[in-house]
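Model the whole thing, not chain by chain.
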Amino acid sequence: MKRYALAALTGVLLIGTAMTGPASAANIGVAMAQFDDNFLTVLRNGMIEYAKTLPDVTLQVEDGANDANKQLSEIQNFVASKVDAIIVNPVDTDATAAITKLAADANIPLVYVNRQPVNLDSLPANQAFVASNEKDSGTLETQQVCKDLKAAGKTEASVYVMEGLLNNQSAIQRTQDVKDVLATPDCSFIKIIDTQTANYQRNDAQTLMANWITTGTKFDGVISNNDEMAIGAIQAIKAAGMDPKTLVIGGIDATEDGLAAMAAGDLKVTVFQDAAGQGKGALDTALALAKGQKVDKEVWVPFQLVTPDNMAQFQKKN
Amino acid sequence: MAEASAPQEIDSAGVHRRPWPPEVNVLIGLIVIALIFEALGWGLVHQSFLGNPARLQIMILQVSIEGIIAVGVTQVIITGGIDLSSGSVVGASAMILMSFAQASTYARAVFPMFTDQPIIVPILVGLACGLIAGLINGLIIAYTKIPPFIATLGMMVSARGVANWYTKGQPVSFPTDAYAAISSGINPVLVFLAIAVIFHIIMRYTLYGRRTYAIGSNEHAARVSGINVERHQVLVYAIAGLLSAVAAIVLTSRNLTAQAGMGTGYELDAIAMAVIGGVSLYGGRGSIIGTVLGALILGVITSGFTFLRVDAYYQEMIKGVIIVGAVVQDVFRQRLRGRG
């Protein structure tokens, strides 16, 4: 009888401990800027897959459909349903003050991912930012383009620069990186002929490049804010009867299509942005904040330069 | 009454006058804008804008895809309706049809058992998608009588949802070489012009065309004179959906990819082309020729901006002003003729 009582008591204690389990059970609200973006899709899926490997973590993922107002409503819903933490990929990086306030007022930890919020420096203690530093992306890309042009024996070169969405902090920063690198003495032999936007889209880039080619200006390369536009440029160059292999074309993202272009020899430079890594980092940070732990305000996931030499290791990642 | 051939007018002196067809106005606008860029070109970059055959080709090539959509939207607007779903239907059709156009050399195809299909397969799949979307639009608008704005807005949102859902946002790329050949060279232009010619003939010389104008001019009178308005509306929206699918085929073949966000904003560009070309949003007025000219105007503007190296931030603002200017100028001309 006593042994049974002891066993029963132990059993109850064990079950009791399991039931009052710590905050390993977490409900996280995720507000993505848009679902129909390749890079953000990899980020989102990376987050979802990682969450599946964690015990008792539930994600609720919403699509902001590139509408800042819609996104704000989604976050209000998260606050109302008292989630343990919120992860936000902001539609508009200038509109994040309102988002920060919503979460701070409700004392819910919040993590911004991939797009730098304008109020980064004044984030409260329970909010953080996980991303890759856009100062590195354009810099790595342009330095490699510079190296490649030098290796091709050019003492003077001219390039076109293709910009992403003009209201996007990443596009603005990447273009600035290009200008900064080309201002250094090492790379000042390269001149920019023109800088125009193709909205991160392949079709727009094809049109833009075709128009540039009709001006008859000689050029040695195209530095693009992302792979999709670089591919569009390559298509236009081919359609005009020119060989992209004789030029130095660079992109950013190392998407599957981009790596295929690199394998074909058309794209010489790209930069891998670890989307899944950012998603994972954001989720880890959110869970840590939900547990009340302190985290760094800025968590940087490094960019990695991709050239034909090392492209094999990036094949499966996107 | 069909606006196709402008009716004779009698002026104050009692003399029969045949006024210019409205398309002449758009043509003048096109020539004026082209000449402005030509002049600015000599002044700013010391190069001829128009004297460049490659550029002339690009100008029409870059608007061909939206131009195909615009031909369909023109007919919808002439009946007094509107179609906001074209861009999303392009996106959804693109995603679905591309999954049947992939090459077997690509390791991560959506349907590994359906790679290397003859191009007729993705083409038919795409056309079916567009047709279904257009039929849904038409049936809802014709038989529930809710405003076309709302019905096609619903389709715009739902179709985009389908585009996003189909492969969870992953792009569908690496089509077969045969499929890529569809849009090689200037084929997009040929497709656009062929469709424009076909529908110009249909709108001007067939019963379908006359009925389209009739419904737009005065739906009640059209109904009373025996036209099955509902059936015609279904047909018009179905054709618009079909043409959006054709645009999707040309677009995906040209870009060798289908992306869930493709086509975003195309419906507005298509409507702008039609409106610049003289289509009235109240219905009953407009023509395919006008729409083609409207498309050319947008093409000239796009190339012109790149040619002059206009700062990207100014381009959209100026484009908006030009679009409104073109329509205001047309409205004034209509008012002077006493039509309003």
